[in-house]
């Protein structure tokens, strides 16, 4: 073979090698973009670590959990869905109690309970938050993650507003606006930051933890200082909520491939949600009875 032929062959080999390299790079990129590809790579690596007696490690900020069919975190998704059902049942029973069992104002046909509207908004935000929690734990994408974080922050921020208004017994609109406005502004800014600047999970965890601890302290102090018939339920929910937050912050590694600290917190939320709506109904009954006694 002549010199010209050898050069041509070398060029063809170089082009072929470059083409193969590009193909491998594209394939690797497409594999990285495929959630199932990442999942199988992650589980294969974790199986190798388990054989060596090593503990699980996080991937992209999350513990490696086993899938079940299309559900990415089956236990967390199921617990979120169950909490959603409990929230809906609690809100519906609260609605039926106020409008069909307790007396209404004869002139306006509105409830005597001063916090009816606040609890309705709470119920809607709670159901929205748990709905997106179930979706996010079923399928973790950038959009479901943003919707989950945003709805959770909105729900917790409003829960703090409700805690302040009820524990301080604020009934006039001016006082309620003064309390709600700065909290709504902060939560809105936080949600916009997460969605349009940086999805900072660490920052979001700190913000949510502070909000939860603050409202748990408010409710617990109020329950201790008042003679409310549901004060034991309030104290139990406050302690349980604070314990769940600390449990999640401890970041427990997964057990049996499905259970991690987040799943335990979601399990705790089910009885707490039931007790919380039980308190809301008893509070409505107590306030309605007190207002009717004063009217007589």
What does this structure look like?
- This protein has a single domain (74-295), classed as Rhopdopsin 7-helix transmembrane proteins, CATH 1.20.1070.10.
- Helix content is 77%, strand content 0%.
- The chain is built from nine helices and no strands.
- The chain has helices at 3-33, 35-51, 74-101, 116-138, 142-167, 173-196, 201-225, 231-249, 261-295.
- Helix 3 (74-101) packs antiparallel against helix 4 (116-138) and helix 5 (142-167) packs parallel to helix 7 (201-225).
- The longest helix has 35 residues, at 261-295.
- The radius of gyration is 27 Å and the shape is elongated.
- The model is unreliable at 1-6 and 12-32 (pLDDT under 50).
- Belongs to the PGAP3 family.
- It is a multi-pass membrane protein.
Query: Quick one: biggest sheet?
Result: none
CATH superfamily descriptor: Rhodopsin 7-helix transmembrane proteins
The H-and-E topology, N to C, reads as HHHHHHHHH
Number of strands: 0
- State which percent range the strand residues make up: under 5%
- Helix content, binned percent: over 70%
């Amino acid at each position: 073979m002549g010199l010209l032929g050898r050069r041509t062959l070398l060029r063809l080999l170089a082009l072929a090698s470059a083409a193969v390299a590009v193909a491998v790079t594209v394939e690797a990129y497409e594999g990285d973009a495929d959630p199932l590809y990442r999942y199988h790579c992650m589980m294969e690596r974790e199986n190798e670590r388990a054989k060596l007696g090593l503990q699980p490690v996080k991937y992209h900020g999350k513990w490696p959990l086993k899938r079940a069919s299309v559900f990415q975190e089956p236990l967390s998704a199921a617990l979120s869905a169950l909490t959603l059902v409990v929230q809906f049942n609690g809100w519906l029973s609260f609605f039926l109690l106020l409008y069909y069992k307790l007396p209404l104002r004869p002139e306006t046909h509105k409830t005597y309970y001063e916090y009816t509207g606040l609890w309705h908004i709470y119920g809607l935000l709670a159901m929205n938050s748990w709905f997106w929690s179930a979706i996010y734990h079923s399928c973790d994408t950038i959009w479901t993650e943003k919707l989950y974080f945003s709805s959770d922050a909105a729900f917790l921020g409003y829960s703090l507003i409700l805690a302040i208004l009820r524990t301080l017994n604020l009934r006039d609109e001016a006082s309620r606006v003064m309390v709600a406005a700065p909290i709504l502004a902060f939560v809105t800014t936080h949600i916009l930051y997460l969605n349009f600047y940086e999805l900072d999970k660490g920052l979001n965890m700190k913000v949510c933890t502070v909000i939860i601890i603050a409202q748990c302290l408010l409710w617990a102090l109020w329950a201790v200082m008042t003679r409310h018939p549901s004060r034991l339920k309030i104290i139990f929910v406050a302690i349980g909520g604070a314990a769940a937050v600390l449990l999640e912050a401890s970041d427990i590694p997964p057990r049996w491939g499905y259970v991690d600290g987040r799943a335990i917190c979601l399990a705790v939320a089910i009885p707490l949600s039931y007790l919380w709506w039980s308190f809301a109904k008893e509070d409505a009954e107590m306030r309605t009875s007190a207002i009717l006694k004063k009217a007589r």
